[in-house]
Specification:
This protein is an alpha/beta fold and 393 residues long. It is built from 15 helices and 12 strands. The strands form 3 sheets. Strands 9-8-7-10-11-12 form a 6-stranded parallel beta sheet, sandwiched between helices. A 4-stranded parallel beta sheet has the order 3-4-5-6, with helices on both faces. Strand 1, helix 2 and strand 2 form a beta-alpha-beta unit. The two termini are 23 Å apart.
Length: 393
């Protein structure tokens, strides 16, 4: 398994994929040092990729520095393949790399890739319009996916978007599979029944997470609200985050700010203490792990009515999907779910049913099904460390 991007949920994905696959295969992980440290599993052979590669945004993919990074990633991927000699090579974050996977050298093993952000189907499937530039990038990605699926070394196309997988299966090429969001590790002492209060915005804190939209809604609230904002904060966002917290407090809200990285267990406990989780991400594509975490502890959600996440909340009755850029609509949803009454009880059965789709058993079955029992056919070469490449910070 290969993932050169660190931080965020990446170590969790690597760990969960390895746990599911090594019941039937010898698994070697190629990952940044920070990911390997966080996994902290000496029984899992690892190849260090040195410093992690920064996240690359679609609008910057033609930047010369970005192109250089992606060429380095292809070379690193080939080094790992040559050194470990696997039956299968699984790339866990391949969206940005697609053009280079299509045009790059054929790799000796079969290759499977996980695509996080397919969205060409958003208008038809989820009633989410795309702007002109978004449509062009989404269409270009579909063409690249189609080209990659025709390569001789392409084994499987994986995605966390069930509708995208269904549509891809209607076309020729390497098999397309829906893989559930990796399972949540419920703590040994799971969050129990307790008094819930207010709402929580949880996860990596940055401009794109809509904290400003939450603040605009709180200012309109006809009552004092208890708000928890928790998660690791992007350093550049700290001054703006502090301004927004002060704005909400001036409006009469009680705001708890916990701007640090939470373990998965601590995050679940924080979510379980809230009446609802607010996810006002204005331009979020793809799946959301916070959505599954909230549902796993019985906490209903308020999300922006966009894309896959908005669709799942509407379809499964997990809370409210509203236009979070409409401060009044977001305010009404927060008051409804975080005010008087017990919204968690109202949504409890729906939340439990949805969370059950992401159980360890379902995840392992889906992932092993990708390989049809054809993993571990030969012994891999013990891992050596490739020459680290600069990751541009």
């Amino acid at each position: 398994m290969f993932d050169w991007v660190g931080g965020g949920h990446h170590p969790i994905y690597v760990r969960r994929f390895a746990e599911a696959l090594r019941s039937e295969a010898e698994v070697v992980v190629a990952a940044p040092d920070e990911t390997i440290r966080e996994i902290d599993d000496r029984s899992l052979p690892a190849i260090s990729l040195g410093h992690s590669r920064p996240r690359i945004f679609p609008t910057r993919r033609f930047d010369p520095h970005v192109r250089s990074l992606l060429r380095d990633e292809i070379a690193l991927l080939k080094d790992v393949s040559d050194q470990s000699n696997p039956d299968h090579l699984v790339h866990l974050y391949a969206d940005s790399l697609l053009p280079y996977l299509v045009s790059g050298p054929r790799l000796a093993p079969s290759v499977s890739v996980l695509i996080f952000y397919p969205r060409a189907h958003y208008p038809a499937a989820f009633q989410t319009p795309l702007r002109s530039g978004e449509r062009m990038r989404a269409t270009a990605k579909e063409l690249l996916i189609a080209a990659w699926r025709r390569r001789a070394d392409a084994h499987a196309l994986l995605t966390l978007d069930e509708e995208a997988a269904r549509r891809w299966r209607l076309r020729r090429g390497a098999e397309a599979h829906w893989v559930p969001e990796p399972p949540i590790a419920i703590p040994a002492k799971p969050p129990g029944e307790q008094k819930r209060t207010g709402c929580i915005l949880y996860g990596a804190l940055a401009e794109r997470k809509g904290v400003d939209l939450l603040a605009s809604a709180v200012v309109l609230a006809p009552m004092s609200l208890h708000i928890t904002i928790a998660g690791e904060v992007n350093a550049a966002f700290v001054p703006r985050l502090n301004e927004l917290v002060a704005e909400m407090r001036r409006a009469g809200a009680t705001v708890e700010l916990h701007a640090d990285r939470h373990s998965e267990a601590n995050g679940l406990h924080a979510l379980a203490r809230a009446k609802c989780a607010v996810m006002p991400y204005p331009s979020h594509d793809g799946m959301s792990r916070v959505l599954v975490e909230a549902c796993s502890v019985g906490t209903p959600v308020i999300v922006h009515n966009r894309g896959l996440v908005g669709h799942l909340v509407r379809r499964h009755g997990l809370g409210r999907a509203v236009d979070c850029q409409d401060a009044g609509a977001l305010c009404r949803a927060i008051v409804e779910l975080a005010g008087e009454g017990d919204a968690a009880m109202e949504y409890r059965d729906n939340l439990a049913r949805f969370a059950s789709r992401f159980s360890p058993r379902h995840f392992e079955r889906a992932l092993l099904g990708v390989f049809h029992g054809d993993v571990g056919a030969r012994t891999m070469t013990p891992p050596r460390q490739p020459t680290p490449r600069a990751a541009g910070g």
